[in-house]
Structure formats: structure tokens, C-alpha cells
Amino acid sequence: MTASDITDGITTNGDISSTRARSATLDGALSAVAEHEPHAWSTRWPLNSAFIFTFGALGGMLFGFDTGIISGASPLIESDFGLTVSQTGFITSSVLIGSCAGALSIGALSDRFGRKKLLIVSAILFLLGSGLCATATGFLMMVAARIILGLAVGAASALTPAYLAELAPKERRGSLSTLFQLMITFGILLAYASNLSFLSHNLLGVRDWRWMLGSALVPAALLLIGGLVLPESPRYLVNKGDIRNAFKVLTLIRKDVDQAQVQLELDEIREVAAQDTKGGVRELFRIARPALLAAVGIMLFQQLVGINSVIYFLPQVFIKGFGFPEANAIWVSVGIGVVNFVSTIVATLIMDRFPRKKLLIVGSIVMTVSLAVLAVMNFVGDVAVLAVPTMVLIAFYIIGFAVSWGPIAWVLIGEIFPLSVRGIGSSFGSAANWLGNFIVSQFFLMLLAAFGNNVGGPFAIFGVFSLLSIPFVLRFVPETKGKSLEEIEEDMTRR
Q: What is the pTM of this model?
């Protein structure tokens, strides 16, 4: 007699009321199985929720690390390879080409082959891209390496939010899914620290920028190790008819509830999965148009409010706009990175205490006010004395973003799509994010130059998008706090 046999007998009938009637005997039956089978699947892998969610979110750390590391390495690469400014800019933005392609392709593959397998593929791409970046011998090889790295970053950005959302209990899904954004900000901070640590240190005769880029191999290896031992998503397993392993995974990650509650959750997943049709682009547009509109819109706004102008170009803002020396400008970016990371920790703590929509609106208001004051101040004031007030206002803008739009956008794209198209839906949302990222990164320096290096110009434009995000949230974004993924699916399909 096996645990699987008992599970099959329990789950043959999806009727929730009959499951409740049997719940009194369920715990005893499973305990008896445990006594006869002490080496069951869950005990062979001594994982706990902290391990699962931390390693599951490592894709976010690599996302952030590879976003931040190029800011310190690109001037050194330009000098070493004798590149033009446009070539250096293309090396920076080439990762976005791969990211968009990776985000669009990973969803359908993850719906077909599973979240776990594609996490492993992403880790391998991270290793390959990081290694090629560190050993690149010229412009073309560096661009190719950055595109491969982009494939990994885009895949992780689409895959990880859906994976975390499908593992998390509904009461803590917001805070646990926010780990992805927390890891992004932690990765950016680590990248800044790596840049400072290796700068001007040509260890073993190897140029400093190669060490900077090569340091990404460490978190990439951790993601690969984590991917090998992480469980598959129970919702994916149910969708593929593997009820036995879905029950085992839920039992593993729901250690704080009894087996009867695990069974009720499994029955709810099965009931909704039985109603789903075959996933694909056609089905995405047929059954999930409200979710798709919300996901694409929220991801575009997350970028068009200008966050990556700060991540990519803040040192240049203070060098060109306020005449800062390069070293001082880099330290400003480190300080803002700390503010971003600490604010995201706060977001993790409060995410499940407040409605998602209210947090988004409050964040939009904080960003709009901060950017409006910054723009007016730099247009009418004496720029020579405005560097410190500008830093303070950028810090407030970062806080507004980090406790709202930063994490919630990634939480939502993992929540709002039906199970049958969750992977491909998250891909479309993530691809929209990379499109917005590309727009901001390509045109920010041009905007700064167009306004005579007055930072008020581009930040005023970002303030307009912050303001426009408020009516978008009110009209198109659903409230998901405290609801199961199955309840959200029912709500969205009725829209």
C-alpha cells in the first residue's frame, strides 16, 4: 500500500463536501502510510518553504544583477575594445533583445514542459551568457553573449512570478511573490558592490570588467542547484493529470496546515483545471483578454514611470546634470540602490496587509508628486545648489515605486491569468515590461540632452506617466488580495 494509492482514492471524486466528510479519517490514513514508508518523496528532499521560495526567486536576483552590473563595466569595456558610444550603448541594450525573445518564448514552453524544467534551462543560459560575457574578445562576441544573457533574464522574468504564485498559499501569496522583486533589488545592489570591489583590480592579470561580469556565474550556479531540487508547481502537475505528485508537493509546502486542508486546496485546483481548455495564444486572447490587458498595461507603466533610467543612468544624471566626479556619482547610485532594497523589504512585510490596488495608487501618487516637484525645482531653481534636494526627491520616488509598482506588477502577472494560459500570459506581460524598458533605456539620454542636461525634463515626462497610471489601475486592474488563484480565475473570466 502506498501514499499514492490512498491519494488516488481520496481524489477520485472532486466533490469538496464529500472531501470534508472524509477529512477525519484522512490524517490517520496518511500517518499510517508514513509509518510504513519512512522514506517517502517528501522526506527524501528535506526542503522547507523558506528554501523553496528563496531559491525559486533566485531568477530575480540574476535579473537584477545582470541589469546593474553593466552600468559599471560598460565604460571599461568601451575603453578596452576601443568602441564608439553607439556600440557601447548597443552592448547595454542588446540584453533587452534577448529578454523580449526569452519572455515571449518561455511561457508556452513552461505550460508544456513545466516550470521546474524551464528554471533549469534559464540557469544554464545564465551560466553560458555570463561566461561568454566575461571572456568576450570583441564587440560582436559581447553582443552575442548579452543576447544569450537576455534570453535567460527574459525567461526568468516571465517564469518566476508564475512559479512563486502557484506555490504560495493565498494568504501569503503577495509577500512571497514579492520575493522576486526583493531579489531583483538585492541583485542590483550586489552588482553595484561587485563593480566597486573589482574596479581597478586586475586580478591574475585579468581585466577588472571581466571579473565584474564573471561574478554573475556564482548566483547562476546557485539557481541551477536550486532548480534541480525544487519541486514542480502543483497546479502544473494537476493540469497535466499528475494528481499524486501534486498532492505530495502541496503536502510538502503546506506544513502549517492539516492534510484535510491540503486536500480541499487540491480539489479546488482540480475543479478549475477541469474547466480549462488547451492553452495557447488563441486561447489567451479568447478567455483571458481582461487579464492580458491588465498585465500588459501594468508592465508598460512599471517601466514608463522611469525606474530603469535611475538604475541604468543615475551616475550620468549627476555627472552631466550636476558636474559630479565619476566616483561620487557611483556612490550616489549605491545609496539609491540601498533605498530601493530596504523599501522592497518593507513591501514584502506589508504586501498581504493592504489591497493591491490601493498600494498601486498610493505609489503612483508618491511618484507623481516627487517627480513633479523635482521637475519644477530644476526648471526654476539654481541647478548649482539642487543636487542634494534632487537626490532626496529621487529617493522618495524610489520608495513610492519600491513599495508598490516594483513588486505588485510582478505579483499580478503571476496571479491573474487562468491556469491553462498562465505561462504564456505571464510571457506577454513580461515582454511588455522589456518593451517599456527598451523605450526608456534608448531615449533617456537623448531626452536629457534635448533638455540641455536639465534632469527636470525627462523626469517631468515620467511624472506624467505616473499620473496616467492611476486611472488605468482604477479601471483595468483587479483586486487579488486574499483570493485563491482559482477564485481570481473565476472573477477574471466573468469580466
A: 0.72
